[in-house]
Amino acid sequence: MSRRALSLIFAGIGAFAALWFGWFNPSGADPQDGKVRQIPLASVFSTNGQDGLQDPTTFVDEKCVWFLNQIYLKTHGMGASNAFLVSGDDIGAAVRATSEVFVGAGPADRPATPDDGKDHELHWLVVYLGVDGSNPPAWLIKSVERQGQRIRLCYEKPAVVFRTKDLHQYFAWAPLGKLGPGIYDLELFDVGKSHISLQRRVEIPAIQ
Fold first, then answer.
1. What's the rounded Cα separation, in Å, for the pair 164 and 15?
2. Separation CA 35–CA 147 (nearest Å)
3. Is residue 105 part of a domain?
4. Range of the domain at 175
5. Number of domains observed in the structure of the chain
6. Neighbouring residues of 116: CB distance < 8 A, sequence distance ≥ 6
7. How would you class 38 by CB atoms within 10 Å of its CB: exposed for 0-12, middle for 13-18, buried for 19 or more?
8. Which of 83, 144, 179, 182 could crosslink 39 through cysteines, CB 3.0-4.6 Å?
9. Strand, coil or helix: what is 92?
10. Three-class DSSP labels, 121-150
11. With contact defined as beta carbons under 8 Å apart, do 44 and 172 qualify?
12. Among candidates 129, 194, 201, 197, which has minimal Cα distance to 168?
């Protein structure tokens, strides 16, 4: 069995275990004890090809791939990083909601929702790190953590002698479970430079 196949198997097992033991906080109760809670990397989807993360094009249907392609076609060459929340009960819905921001010019001050006529209760952190060559990966995700209503993704950009010259978009989707209403602070933290590279404040409104 290939190394890639083994990594996909272990990623699936890790994601299932995380769901089983309640890492994603499905109850919707926001932790108020101030503790930092790690989101298992095995549950994170990304386009960066990093071992231990899940490939969104592997576990979903053709519609998800279509939305990823639309994002690429509409934003080809866009290099600015971004972070926001979306609603989606699975990765396919999360990618579809992501396209509402990048393709449909949707706002990012509240969680974006997929245009599918369904109610989605679960939330995802969406991170766009930018465009670079695809091999070796230009950005590596080191951790995703939540402390109360602060959500942080830590990453690094390894220094390499050579990287392919193609234009590859680097996305990541981290499952957060059901978040309660309130103001959430999203952060991208550059591990190599030891500083916060991007911050965004997102409001989840109370249900009227």
1. 31
2. 6
3. yes
4. 3-26+36-204
5. 1
6. 93, 96
7. exposed
8. 144
9. helix
10. CCEEEEEEEEEECCCCCCCEEEEEEEECCE
11. yes
12. 129
Residue type, 17: A
Question: Cβ–Cβ contacts within 10 Å for residue 16, how many?
Answer: 12
Residue 127, in any domain of the structure? yes
Sheet strands (E) in 21-149:
37-39, 45-46, 82-87, 123-132, 140-147
End-to-end CA distance of the chain: 52
Mean pLDDT of successive 10-residue stretches along the chain, which has 208 residues = 44 42 43 82 95 84 77 76 94 92 83 88 96 94 97 95 90 96 97 96 85
Of 116, 122, 75, nearest to 96 by C-alpha is 116
* Cβ neighbours of residue 165 closer than 8 Å, sequence gap 6 or more: 133
Q: Is 25 left (phi over 0), alpha (psi -120 to 50) or beta?
A: left
Q: From residue 1, how far is each of 9, 11, 32, 43, 53 by CA, in Å? A: 11, 15, 44, 22, 18
Residue 31 domain-assigned (yes or no) = no
pLDDT in tens, 149-188: 999 999 999 988 899 999 899 999 999 999 999 999 999 9
Within its chain, how far is the Cα of 39 from the centroid?
11
Could you give the CA distance from residue 85 to residue 166 in angstroms, rounded to a whole number? 28
ω before 136 within 30° of 0 (cis)?
A: yes
